[in-house]
Design goal:
The complex is a heterodimer of chains A (561) and B (662). Chain A has 21 helices and five strands. With 561 residues, chain A is mainly α. Chain A has a three-stranded antiparallel sheet with strand order 4-3-5. Helices cover 69% and strands 3% of the residues of chain B. Chain B is built from 24 helices and three strands. A three-stranded mixed sheet of chain B has the order 1-2-3. Classes of the chains: A mainly alpha (561), B mainly alpha (662). Chains A and B meet through helix 7, helix 9, helix 10, helix 12 and helix 17 of A and strand 2, helix 5, helix 6, helix 23 and helix 24 of B.
């Protein structure tokens, strides 16, 4: 028996290899690096790995631009223009997100449970908290997830797609459950995410099976060929396609597959929410783009209705429900649902302009999202003794914050304006791109609805801006030193969470809003501030001078057939 | 063939169509970017240098504004030296956005319309800068105040110099930002911050109009620069689209110019320092809506329905402001109501089409002078009266503030429209134009003409009331018995000189620009001239009628507020007076129509969300504290329902696909 070694084009795999390799090494670092230096080493190593991935993308850029791309490992991976743009976007966003993940408050608290294995509220947990334990496994987990995300949009067959989906999902399930505070909410979110994720994966796997049954192959290219030659078993093909689409739509949080989003975004540690909301969406949209543009064009007439229904439902439901939210993280979650709808309008278009519009939108949406969740992470509750607690996520707690922290609130306002699509922010250019692509592609009703939904969405974003800058903070919060005034704080009506006398332990369990809690911005080591500044700069620069980036993307927006 | 004439002036008829822009890149026009650059740089320096620049910061601000005026003047003289038909120039600054089909260049449009604004903004702006040096002397944040003023001037210049609607939008947002910063300048006081918030929300509503208009323009004309949009052949565009764009632009104008139904913020904006009220909320920013409509003249000319709505909005606001102005006892709020009403005149004129465009801008310029002058006068009165604004506490101030009295008086005569003061030349023309039938609709001429005429009479009454209550009659200042005794005194020279200069403008500018139709001819390349019908009342009769009404209004005010005793405590008054005192219940109406239904809807939705989702989350947490075991059940319950939703939807989707396919 002869064994021929496969021809592997290592160079084109390099962005993926660097990140996944680093993730594997990261696990070893956990075992061999002494505890006190582990965080620094892990952080530096992870950042280096992601920077390496960006560098690898940059090195491949011109070659792919010239040749149009190559297939690697048979047809498993396709490295073409959109792949590189998406991989670059994911790696860049992951770097910024990692900065928020790594940040610690001035008292040395990061966003994660000191030891995730401890039962919430137990003595063991309290002990771990006092000892200052940390879960540095977070870094390799983020790297594994990022690795999966890099593969997801590049997959050239359904098996790779599925494996990538699992590689990116499993670490995220774990990370979701690691919140330092409100741990039950966090664990509940992780459980929900896992169960629903598994459900969606199963649906998708079933769809892949049906497609295999129809075409006898798992690679996109062969299924495309099979689609072109009708065999009379069309229903197999159609049902399979719908199931695969459902799996992808679940990942990007489109209605009716969105129900996990608010719970998970709310429960997960906030930096992880930012990472997940930005990078997962990029990866999932990338995969959907490839499947929709290369495998399913032949089915456009049959499947258009699915995407139309989903797009409309996503924009409407996301916008309407977001208007009613009182929790900042849930609000941003529904806003991200609405954005999934806006981006879908660009995908429905099915033309080259749509691809570059979606790619640009993903970049600017990702930047604003990580920045926004970064800000949410910094805005904290503080009790009467001046001890900083968890995030102040209730909208009312954000009142007047712009007057005390103009820069932070200013950047948050910038992100919100970008979400709302106000001109001079990157969000405007992004929205403009996808909507005009939809019009060009004949989907003008979607674009119209998108514009209306954006106008509606603008109201709840602007409401927050008004709240931050023009509303009065409760009287005792106007001075940042709230200690002496704490006694006068108003009691939040309708809040029936019991206040436990020995605050510390219960604080890790549920959202606890004692009467004397005020809002503050926590001092940190500065990583999150850097991340927010970068995101704000990107949002502003791409809003005012988008041309170079748009140019670069438009040259890289053709899929290898 | 008839042209708009009256016994004072005659308009030579010239049928000039608006001319296309001519690109320039050299010579004197290359310094045009400095117009914006100087105040912008100064604002940046003042904000970044911080307290270090406290000593000289205000003078830098004055210098930057004056520099912009000098450059504006030089550019204006060069433009004047060119042929009337080649006075529209585009200074190209570079490609701004190039996103496939969406291409926008950044550039400046120098034409009679924009130069008129540049001169008004920089000249009045510089005077108000000088005035503020003294007015804000005791404020420890004076430097920051000047930074904001410079920022405002720069943004306003971007707004009027932009050569595309998108760049205009940048300026539009910039003046908005500067306006909130300045209204809320003393934001440690809550009502002031509330006022800034109100202005913010009203303006956001207006901005949505502008954004939607931008989108419609792009999809209709394929671009948003003035050349593409305004020189487009409108006959090929559907009426519905043009009307839509027109109404959206009007919405934007309503937000910025405090026109009905978005008028509620202007009165509250008076919370800002008085020089701000003079510059931003009287002379310049609030007139941006008029600029927007006149700038889009070719668009509006092709959309008669939108034009009609513009006229209606102008007419309603004109009366609204005038009625409110009659009842206000707060000096600044009365002036604000007057501003609203006068801008109503401008909007009405702008809605009349080519007959009115030039007069809208003419009135805008003369109003800029006399209203800024009166606001500075009001500031001077407040300065001498320990920041008192209640007119029932003034009276007989003429003897103590002679300069303020005379300068304010000239502004008063100008706004009344007494010949030969400025207002006469511009406002009378608007009234006359309103009486000209459009498209043969005589009823419109009668309705809008009578409204404009009536407005002039009411204006005379409330402005005279304001003037007499402040400067004539017996003294009603607070005495020792009320707490503190007041000693009215004239303001320092730095404050009086700007007032004197503005008063000279209030007195003579109208005549200088009006005789021989200099101003209308100057604007002709932008606004065009067209033939129009005869007013339904003879112009001579109209002028006399207006004067009679104005004098009647003034005499009535004289009898009630100068000769008779004005009670210090406001009397109960008629139902109309009481309604006018609270701005004709605008806030109540806003609350009832918009805020409450919105809140109700939101509350019920939030309740659903809380009861179903949050309730569950909190419930889960609570239960877990006591009964950890129950947790699992609650969780799986919800996941199950989520999963069921997904599955059902999926089945529906599959069925839909299969049904469509078969």
């Amino acid at each position: 028996m002869t064994f021929t070694a496969p021809q592997v084009d290592w160079a084109h795999l390099s962005p993926v290899l660097v990140v996944l390799g680093a993730a594997a090494i990261g696990v070893l670092l956990e075992a061999f690096v002494p505890e006190r230096r582990r965080r620094v080493v892990q952080l530096a190593f992870s950042l280096a790995a992601l920077a390496g991935a960006v560098l690898a993308v940059a090195l491949l850029w011109n070659g792919v631009k010239r040749t149009g791309g190559v297939r690697v490992l048979g047809d498993s991976l396709v490295v073409d223009g959109p792949t590189l743009v998406l991989q670059g976007t994911i790696a860049l966003l992951a770097i910024v997100a990692l900065l928020t993940v790594a940040d610690r408050t001035s008292t040395g608290e990061d966003a994660f449970a000191p030891t995730a294995a401890a039962v919430p509220g137990s003595d063991y947990e309290e002990l771990a908290r006092r000892r200052g334990l940390q879960q540095t496994e977070v870094y390799p987990l983020v790297l594994f997830a990022t690795g999966g995300m890099l593969v997801f949009p590049a997959a050239g067959d359904f098996l790779t797609l599925f494996v990538a989906l699992e590689v990116l999902s499993l670490p995220l399930y774990l990370l979701t459950g690691l919140a330092r505070r409100r741990r039950l909410l966090s664990q509940e979110a992780a459980m929900k995410y896992f169960l629903l994720g598994a459900f969606a994966s199963a649906l998708m796997l079933f769809g892949i099976g049906l497609l295999y049954g129809y075409s006898g192959s798992l690679t996109y290219a062969r299924i495309t060929t099979a689609v072109a030659t009708p065999t009379g078993t069309d229903s197999l093909l159609l049902v399979g396609s719908v199931l695969v689409l459902a799996g992808l739509l679940f990942k990007l949080g489109a209605v009716p597959f969105h129900s996990w989003t608010p719970d998970v975004y709310q429960g997960a540690p906030t930096p992880i929410t930012g990472f997940m909301a930005a990078c997962t969406k990029v990866a999932a949209f990338g995969a959907l783009l490839r499947v929709w543009y290369t495998v399913m064009p032949g089915l456009k007439w049959d499947l258009d209705v699915v995407l139309w229904i989903v797009t409309i439902a996503t924009m409407v439901v996301g916008t309407v429900i977001a208007m009613t939210q009182t929790d900042m993280k849930r609000l941003l979650a529904y806003s991200s649902v609405a954005h999934a709808g806006f981006i879908l309008t660009g995908i429905v278009a099915l033309d080259a302009q749509g691809v570059s519009a979606v790619l640009f939108y993903l970049l600017v949406y990702g930047a604003a999202t990580i920045g926004a969740f970064g800000v949410v992470w910094l805005v904290r509750e503080r009790d009467a003794d001046g001890i900083v607690l968890g995030e102040a996520t209730h909208l009312s707690q954000w009142a007047g914050i712009g007057r005390r922290h103009p820069w932070l609130a200013g950047s948050f306002a910038l992100f919100l304006f970008s979400f709302a699509g106000i001109p001079l922010t990157a969000g405007f250019i992004g929205k403009f791109g996808v909507f005009s692509a939809a019009v060009d592609g004949g989907a003008w009703p979607l674009a119209l609805l998108g514009v209306l939904a954006s106008a509606g969405a603008a109201f709840f974003y602007v409401r927050i801006v008004v709240l931050m800058f023009f509303s009065d903070a409760p009287a005792d919060q106007t001075a940042d030193e709230a200690d002496d005034a704490a006694a006068a704080a108003p009691v939040e009506a309708g809040d029936d969470v019991p206040v436990d006398a020995d605050g510390g332990a219960v604080a890790t369990l549920v959202a606890q809003r004692a009467p004397s809690v005020t809002t503050t911005v926590v001092g940190t080591e500065g990583f999150a501030t850097v991340a927010i500044a970068v995101c704000a700069a990107v949002t502003l620069v791409l809003g005012v001078f988008p041309t170079p980036v748009l140019d670069a993307i438009s040259h890289m927006s053709t899929f290898l057939p | 063939m008839h042209t708009l004439t009256s016994w004072a002036t005659s308009v030579p008829f010239t049928d000039i169509a608006p001319v296309a822009a001519e690109p320039v890149k050299h010579g004197i026009y290359a310094v045009a970017p400095l117009l914006v650059g100087l105040p912008l740089a100064s604002a940046a320096v003042l904000l970044l240098a911080g307290r270090r620049s406290d000593k000289w910061g205000h003078w830098l601000g004055v210098l930057a504004s004056a520099g912009a005026f000098v450059i504006g003047l030089i550019t204006f003289l060069h433009l004047l030296g060119r042929d009337a038909s080649s006075r529209i120039l585009d200074v190209h600054l570079g490609t701004w956005i190039d996103a496939g089909a969406f291409h926008v260049d950044a550039g400046m449009r120098l034409d009679p319309l924009s130069m008129t604004f540049v001169l008004l903004v920089t000249f009045v702006g510089t005077l108000i800068h000088v005035y503020s040096v003294a007015y804000m002397e005791h404020d420890r944040d004076r430097r920051r105040f000047f930074a904001y003023l410079n920022l405002f001037v720069a943004a306003m210049l971007i707004l009027v110099l932009a050569d595309s609607y998108l760049l205009l939008f940048v300026g539009w947002e910039g003046v908005g930002l500067a306006s909130y910063l300045l209204i809320g300048f003393w934001n440690q006081r809550t009502p002031y911050a509330v006022a800034a918030k109100k202005a913010f929300v009203a303006n956001r509503v207006g901005d949505i109009g502008l954004i939607v208009a931008l989108g419609l323009m792009f999809s209709t004309f394929g671009g948003v620069d003035f050349d593409t949009v305004l020189n487009h052949d409108m006959s090929g565009v559907s009426q519905a689209t043009l009307t839509g764009i027109g109404l959206m632009l009007l919405l934007a104008a309503c937000g910025k110019s405090a026109q009905f139904p978005l008028q509620s913020w202007l009165g509250d904006a008076m919370a800002g320092p008085t020089p701000v009220s003079a510059l931003i909320h009287a002379a310049t920013m609030v007139t941006a809506g008029v600029y927007l409509i006149v700038r889009s003249s070719t668009l509006f000319d092709a959309a008669p329905t939108a034009q009609l709505v513009v006229v209606i909005v102008g007419a309603i606001t004109l009366l609204f402001g005038a009625i409110v102005g009659c009842a206000k006892d707060d000096l600044k709020k009365a002036l604000a109501a007057s501003t609203m009403s006068q801008i109503g005149y401008m909007i009405l004129a702008a809605g009349l089409g080519p007959v009115g465009y030039a007069f809208a801008i003419f009135h805008l310029v003369t109003h800029g002078f006399f209203k800024a002058g009166m606001f500075l006068g009001a500031g001077s009165v407040m300065h001498g009266m320990d920041d008192q604004v209640d007119m029932r506490r003034f009276g007989g101030l003429a003897r103590y503030m002679k300069i303020t009295y005379v300068t304010f008086g000239l502004g008063w005569l100008a706004i009344l429209g007494i010949p030969p003061f400025s207002g006469y030349w511009s406002k009378d023309k608007i009234i006359e134009a309103a009486f000209i039938p459009t498209d043969g609709h005589t009823w419109r001429a009668w309705v809008f003409g009578m409204v404009a005429l009536l407005g002039a009479g009411i204006t005379a009454f409330y402005m005279s009331r304001l003037f007499f209550m402040t400067f004539e009659g017996e003294r009603r200042w607070s005495t020792k018995a009320d707490g503190s005794e007041q000693h009215p005194h004239e303001s320092p020279a730095l404050m009086t000189w700007p007032m004197i200069i503005l008063a000279v403008g209030s007195a003579g500018l109208g005549m200088v620009l009006g005789i021989g139709n200099r101003f209308v001819d100057w604007l002709a390349p932008v606004t065009g001239h067209t033939e129009h019908g005869e007013p339904v009342i003879q112009p001579v009769v109209l002028v006399i009628l207006t004067l009679v009404l104005v004098v009647a209004g003034a005499v009535l005010a004289w009898r009630r507020y100068a000769i008779s005793t004005v009670p210090v405590v406001p009397p109960l008054g008629t139902a109309l007076t009481r309604a006018a005192r609270v701005d004709l219940y605008q806030d109540v109406v806003n609350d009832a129509l918009l805020v409450e239904p919105g809140q109700h809807l939101t509350r019920s939705l939030v309740y659903t969300d809380k009861a179903v989702v949050d309730g569950a989350a909190v419930g889960v947490g609570q239960t877990a504290v006591g009964l950890g075991g129950l947790l699992r059940k609650t969780q799986t319950g919800y996941v199950r329902s989520y999963a069921a939703t997904m599955l059902v939807s999926l089945v529906v989707l599959v069925v839909v696909v299969l049904v469509i396919q078969s």
